[in-house]
Structures are given as structure tokens and as C-alpha cells.
Design goal:
By secondary structure, this protein is α/β, with parallel strands linked by helices. Helix content is 41%, strand content 12%. The strands form two sheets. An eight-stranded parallel barrel has the order 1-2-3-4-5-6-8-9, surrounded by six helices. The chain has a three-stranded antiparallel β-sheet with strand order 7-11-10, covered by helices on one side. Helix 8 packs parallel to helix 9. One of its GO terms (molecular function) is nitronate monooxygenase activity.
Length: 371
């Protein structure tokens, strides 16, 4: 499973794994893939620096990447504002609606002194830039932006540090814009993917993006969780695959909520929904009473990014802390239907590569006219 891009990065397999967990990223690197740590969950640059220091010591010398979130557009009136100022823009009616949802499900308050653990401050540009300052002090081989290309000065700075720059795209039009902005790698993220997605399926999107940005390398993402699907992605012209959801039920992920792990293991491919309930932008996640409430036409509807994420931060922390099952969810793709056991990252990689080889061999026999 070697391609021009994987050879350039010096990795054994063209498997790129996005994860918020440093232990997963490191294990994937040691298994021959390429771990990409998501930075959006970090409350401050010091926490990110600590985990990047840990990654430097635990990847076995293999390269790794970092994924930041710098939106190309924000809610009108919030451009350039810091977190406290943005908080002040949130309507009181939406705060009441959050309280009503929590009250309807008897969600207790957080224990005294505990603060919201998950906030989307990483989507505020000043926070993301502080994270980048940390990243440039580490041997990060690839810098990815989940919501379009990074600003031009960030691309220039990353290239000066020898980093490749990647950006996720949900359409060929977006991909062309990324290429024009100087991005080195385009991730074609299909409708099936977890987190922020567009409306085009991976099977359609990948070859469109490959043609649109040729000769830039493209990674296929969305609905990929088996060796056969990896082979399909490469057959469509991709130089690798970008996997995220698949790592949520690995041993190294160590989700803090056993109940959430159980929900993921029990979920089928039809148990996700593309909703703005979490961040303000359409993101695929487990369908729950929380997503139903925000998608209800009778409700006020989600706020635009970054207001929605700031609005719901404490509520989500309370839901997760108390494991309130009807409301408990997470971003995850339709591939969740294959995630039926907790396994080590290396076991997942071994299965992916083994089944990829079998799929390629089978296609070779078909192409050769043999059975």
C-alpha cells in the first residue's frame, strides 16, 4: 500500500488517521501509517505542546501530522473577536433552549468547580494561531486544515518549516480553490464521513477531485473502513486514505465514557445524521435526542459557527460526564456499522492491509481473466 505520497513522507502504508487522541496517532505511526492529531479540542497551547512533546517521543521516529481548524468564514459580526466577546453575541433565547433540553432529560449540573471540558475555541483564529506557533516548534510533517485552506501566511510559514499542507474538500470546486491557495494535499471528504462533510458521496467525489487538482495528491475520505474500500479509493485515483471514525473504538482511544463506546459498538450505518447541532456547520454524528432537538423545526435552530459550539460546550460536558444515554453522542461516520469490537490500533491496521492485499489480488485475477 505504497504510493508516491507515502514514499515522500517515508511511511509504509498510505493510511492517514485523524484522531483527537495522541496515543492513537502514535500507535498508527508505529504500525506503519501516518497519525494526524486533531488540535481543536485543546483549551490552550500549553496542553498541545505537552502532547506534541509526547508524540515526539512515542512515534518510533515516524512522521506525524497536526489538524487545526481555521474556518474561511465565521458568523457575521464575530470576525476578529475573542472568545469572551463572541460569547456575548449568543442570544438568550438559545441559552434557554439548551436549558430546556437538559431539563427535559434531567441532566444534573457539573460537580462543583468543574468547567466545560470540550469547547470549540480552536475555531477562533487567535487560538488556532497560538496552536500553530506550538506546532512550528515540533517536527510536524503535515499540517491539515479541516475547513478549507489555511490563510496564505500560514501556508507560507508551514512550507518554510518543511511541512506539507493539506486541506479537506467536499467538492471539486473547493478542491480547486485549495490548490490555488498553495495546498500540497487535498483530502476528498465524502458525505459518509464523520464530522464536517459536504453533500457528495466519496465514490463520486474522489475521482472528481483527482481530476480537478491533478497532479496534486488526493486522499480519499468518508465511508472507508476496510481493505476493500481502501483499494477502491486508490482505484479512483487517490494516493491514500484519510480515516477518522474507525479509531474511536480502538484501545488507545480510551474514550472517557464507557456508555459512549457501547453506543458506537451497537450502532449501525444508518444511525448517524448530518446535523448542525454540534458546531453550527453540517457535521455527521450519532443521531440522538440532542440532534433531534436541534433539527426540530419548532426549535430556534442552531447558530452559525463558532456561536453554536460555544453555546453547547457546557451542556455537552454535562451530558458526557453523567452519561445521559438519550443525549450522548459524538461525531462519527457511516462506517460506524463496521465498528463492532474494541481492538488495538495495530490489529486494525493489520486487518486493513491484509484485506487490501486480498482485494488487489482478486482484482488482478479478474483483470487477467482468471478466477
Amino acid at each position: 500500500m505504497r504510493t508516491e505520497l507515502s514514499t515522500r513522507l517515508g511511511i509504509e502504508y498510505a493510511l492517514f488517521g485523524f484522531t483527537p487522541f495522541p496515543a492513537v496517532a502514535a500507535a498508527l505511526c508505529r504500525a506503519g501509517g501516518f497519525g494526524v492529531l486533531g488540535a481543536v479540542r485543546y483549551r490552550d497551547a500549553g496542553e498541545l505542546a505537552r502532547d506534541l512533546d509526547w508524540l515526539d517521543r512515542n512515534t518510533g521516529g515516524a512522521p506525524y501530522g497536526l489538524d487545526v481548524v481555521m474556518p474561511a468564514r465565521r458568523a457575521p459580526g464575530t470576525e476578529g473577536l475573542g472568545e469572551d466577546d463572541v460569547e456575548a453575541v449568543i442570544p438568550a433565547s438559545h441559552r434557554r433552549y439548551v436549558d430546556e433540553i437538559l431539563a427535559a432529560h434531567d441532566v444534573p449540573a457539573l460537580p462543583g468547580g468543574q468547567r466545560a471540558g470540550w469547547r470549540v475555541t480552536g475555531w477562533l483564529e487567535d487560538v488556532a494561531r497560538a496552536q500553530l506557533d506550538v506546532a512550528f516548534d515540533h517536527p510536524v510533517a503535515l499540517l491539515a486544515n479541516a475547513l478549507g485552506p489555511p490563510p496564505a501566511d500560514v501556508v507560507t510559514r508551514a512550507h518554510a518549516h518543511g511541512m506539507l499542507v493539506a486541506a479537506l474538500a467536499g467538492s471539486a470546486r473547493h478542491a480547486r480553490r485549495h490548490a490555488e491557495a498553495g495546498v500540497d494535499v487535498v483530502v476528498a471528504q465524502g458525505y459518509e464521513a464523520g464530522g464536517h462533510t459536504g453533500e457528495i458521496a466519496t465514490m463520486v467525489l474522489t475521482p472528481e477531485v483527482v481530476r480537478a487538482v491533478d497532479p496534486l495528491p488526493v486522499l480519499a475520505a468518508g465511508g472507508i473502513g476496510s481493505g476493500e474500500q481502501i483499494a477502491a479509493g486508490l482505484a479512483l485515483g487517490a494516493q491514500g486514505v484519510w480515516l477518522g471514525s474507525l479509531w474511536l473504538t480502538t484501545e488507545e482511544a480510551a474514550l472517557s465514557s464507557p456508555a459512549l463506546t457501547a453506543k458506537l459498538l451497537a450502532a449501525g450505518s444508518g444511525d448517524t445524521v448530518r446535523s448542525r447541532a454540534l458546531t453550527g456547520k453540517p457535521a455527521r454524528q450519532l443521531r440522538t435526542a440532542w440532534t433531534d432537538a436541534w433539527d426540530d423545526p419548532a426549535g430556534p435552530g442552531p447558530l452559525p459557527m463558532p456561536l453554536q459550539g460555544l453555546l453547547v460546550a457546557e451542556a455537552l460536558t454535562r451530558i458526557q460526564h453523567h452519561e445521559v444515554l438519550p443525549l450522548l453522542g459524538t461525531p462519527v461516520g457511516q462506517i460506524v456499522g463496521r465498528m463492532d469490537a474494541v481492538r488495538p490500533v495495530r490489529a486494525v491496521v493489520d486487518e486493513l492491509t491484509r484485506d487490501f492485499e486480498r482485494a488487489v489480488a482478486r482484482l488482478g485475477r479478474i483483470a487477467g481473466g482468471t478466477t
